[in-house]
Write a structure and sequence with these properties.
There is one protein chain. It is globular and about 70 Å long. The chain contains 14 helices and 16 strands. Helix 2 (about 50-60) packs across helix 12 (about 275-300). By secondary structure, it is an alpha/beta fold. Strands 6-7-5-4-8-1-9-14-2-15 form a ten-stranded mixed β-sheet, with helices on both faces. A two-stranded antiparallel sheet has the order 3-16. The longest helix is centred in the C-terminal third of the chain and has 29 residues, at about 275-300.
Length: about 400
């Protein structure tokens, strides 16, 4: 009986791997450069940023670049298989075109451990095609959104596993807030240069892969004088220069402003509500500064697409008595803004597009065949199959 079960397992896993391989061969035979309009993509996520977060920022006295300079303005419809999405499922939808359960990162809802297969990220596909790739965030490098572009785990809380996969990845740079469990020696053992200050970041060359571990203040428009970390705008400028330098294949950069979300949580009837509202507005402006830097590069470069959106809205911001105020401390399911720069037809003006469609639409602008992305990669079944064969 035991031997019979093993044989069935081997047959099942083999069938899955054959299916994945067939998809890969189909993609390999396609013309990936046909119809390419752009060489580079900068995809920017304002975590938790709803339409009324922009109005809140204006209420707090900020003028926003993102709205006034977009070529197309539309909407993204957000949700997960758990209804209202969290950042893990939201990032996975935006990076793979796959709908999954909340808390899961880069997996299928029917195989949350990635035993048989997992969806391929747009960043992973870019890497396989020779692009340079980078992740820049104000969150921890183990946060749900950076994880949602770099690893495959069944739960966003698995910080050690997230870091381990990131260090084994082919990214050229991953920068964010420092994770307590991560040591410099571990980073350097995996071929990344460990950086923790703005000065160290500015000293990087394009030949160096880097892992940034900064303070938690990067979201601010101005950092405290005693903080040696860069702002999100400065991180974005430097990341672009590193990824673009001497790279003929192109690059894909994901930039996250995480603190719009963080300052919009736990705001209902909270004692720190006025401060959170002010901080959220400042985080919007800090993210907006990074957008401006990215768009200015793209307009001058002439070969770069910039897309800005959010994974979900946080706080249910509502206009009441002339002020935008929080009505909740949780995520909501309202549509979130999409801003497109340097392209007039990624989406139609005013269109509400499913967030899952954005990575495929971007892939088309890069000239990728519809058979190439999205697609499944085999999961840990390779090792499982090997163990089963050895135990026979």
């Amino acid at each position: 009986m035991k031997r019979h079960i093993k044989r069935l397992a081997v047959i099942f896993v083999a069938a899955v791997l054959v299916l994945c391989t067939s998809v890969q061969l189909m993609a390999a035979g396609s013309n990936s450069s046909a119809g390419a309009e752009f060489k580079n993509v900068i995809f920017m996520i304002g975590d938790g940023m709803g339409e009324n977060h922009l109005r809140l920022a204006e209420q707090e006295g900020y003028t926003l670049f993102m709205e006034e300079n977009a070529d197309v303005r539309g909407w993204s419809m957000t949700r997960s298989t758990s209804e209202v999405t969290d950042s893990a499922a939201g990032a996975t939808a935006l990076s793979t075109g796959i709908r999954i359960n909340n808390n899961c990162v880069g997996t299928y809802y029917f195989d949350v451990s990635g035993i048989f297969m997992h969806p391929r990220y747009i960043t992973e596909h870019a890497q396989k095609k020779g692009y340079k790739t980078g992740i820049v965030t104000t969150d921890l490098t183990t946060g749900a959104t950076p994880a949602g572009y770099s690893v495959h785990v069944k739960d966003r809380s698995m910080a050690d596993d997230i870091t381990a996969q990131q260090l084994e990845s082919d990214f050229d740079l991953i920068w964010g807030a420092a994770a307590e469990h991560l040591e410099k020696s571990t980073v350097e053992e995996h071929g990344f240069k460990y950086i923790s200050t703005k000065e160290e970041m500015e000293g990087l060359t394009s030949s160096e892969r880097s892992f940034g571990q900064f303070s938690g203040n990067m979201w601010r428009t101005q950092l405290p004088e005693d903080d040696a970390s860069p702002t999100l705008e400065e991180m974005t400028v430097k990341a672009i220069s590193l990824l673009d330098d001497g790279n003929d294949s192109g690059f894909f950069l994901m930039v996250e402003g995480a603190h719009i979300d963080k300052h919009s949580h736990k705001t209902d009837n909270g004692a720190d509500y006025p401060e959170k509202r002010s901080d959220a507005a400042n985080a919007v402006k800090g993210f907006d500064n990074a957008i401006k830097a990215a768009v200015e590069f793209a307009r001058q470069d002439g070969n770069t697409l910039v897309v800005v959106t959010a994974d979900h809205e946080t706080g249910s911001l509502t206009l009441i008595d002339g002020e935008y105020t929080y009505q909740s401390g949780m995520h909501s399911g309202v549509n979130v803004p999409v801003f497109v720069y340097c392209s007039s037809d990624l989406i139609a003006e005013g269109e509400a597009v499913d967030n899952m469609k954005l990575p495929m639409l971007i892939g088309e602008k890069l000239g990728w065949s519809k058979y190439e992305f999205p697609r499944a990669d085999a999961g840990t079944a390779f090792n499982w199959l090997k163990k089963l064969l050895k135990s026979k």
